[in-house]
Amino acid sequence: MIVVADDDRAVTQMVSQVLHQAGYLVMPAYTGEEAYRYIRRPDCIGLILDLRMPEVSGAEMLMLMASQGIHLPVIVIAGFPDFDEDELRQFPNVRRFLRKPFLPEDLLTAVRDIMPPPSGGKSGG
Fold first, then answer.
1. Does residue 14 belong to any structural domain of this protein?
2. Which label site among 5, 62, 89, 110 has the fewest CB atoms less than 10 Å from its CB?
3. Per-residue pLDDT for 21 more than 90?
4. What is the residue range of 82's domain?
């Protein structure tokens, strides 16, 4: 399962649909708190994370993951211009960066580069 964490429902739905069509099990999360619950599940293989989220921001999520020893690969997505990739490189979980808007092909390339292939299930939230 890949957790897609973005408070923008249109982005979450688009990313979820692209991944679902590629065969991945997807769990959408619209808050950082909700995403944190899902990434702790044993079937979670990765996280696609917006930096600006309510309750727990993307940066706070990365710090929390580091402090809890959660070693999932993370693709950071962000739409604001002052996004600093270098600042986030301190988190070893962050493997890729995508600036919004991005193409579905770019998303799939990033996911396939860093996450295990889908296990065949096409169901999900």
1. yes
2. 89
3. yes
4. 2-114
Paired tokens of 70: 């959660």
* CB distance 48 to 113 below 8 Å: no
Number of domains in the chain: 1
pLDDT in tens, 43-96: 999 999 998 888 888 889 999 999 999 999 999 998 876 666 777 778 889 999
CATH number at residue 103: 3.40.50.2300
Rounded distance between C-alpha atoms, residue 118 and residue 111, angstroms: 10
pTM: 0.90
Answer whether residue 121 is part of any domain. no
Let me know if residue 120 belongs to a domain.
no
pLDDT of residue 122: 45
* Burial class of residue 67 in the structure, from the number of CB atoms within 10 Å of its CB (0-12 exposed, 13-18 middle, 19+ buried): exposed
Here the contacts of 35-42 (C-beta below 8 Å, separation 24 or greater) are 35/3, 35/5, 35/61, 36/61, 36/64, 38/1, 38/3, 39/3, 39/65, 39/70, 39/72, 40/68, 40/70, 41/1
Structure tokens, 85: 């990739």
